[in-house]
Amino acid sequence: QVHLVESGGGLVQAGGSLRLSCAASGSVFSMSIYKMGWYRQAPGKQRESVADITTGGSTNYADSVKGRFTISRDNGRKTVYLQMDNLKPEDTAVYYCNAFRWSTDANYWGQGTQVTVSS
Hints:
Largest sheet: 7 strands, mixed
Oligomer: single chain
Radius of gyration: 14 Å
């Protein structure tokens, strides 16, 4: 069984920063072979991709967060991070961690963490 647990969300003023963490657990889960990503879902909107990082360390970002957010991973700690700087009210959403493995279509989600940015 694989569990992803997000933490680090909260309330912050516009222009502030937060660092989200996603810790993976499961004795047979080897995070190094999974693409890891962060998604978010705002009220009344569809879930959208924010950032992802491949097994090789390549990163991709949504246009709306480029230059402000940074995704990173620590395979030894089975943890993926999302550093969010210069936050804007439109970044308010529930942020979800995702682990995906192409070869098996294995796909895991965390329970989400709320990020609220006040203006």
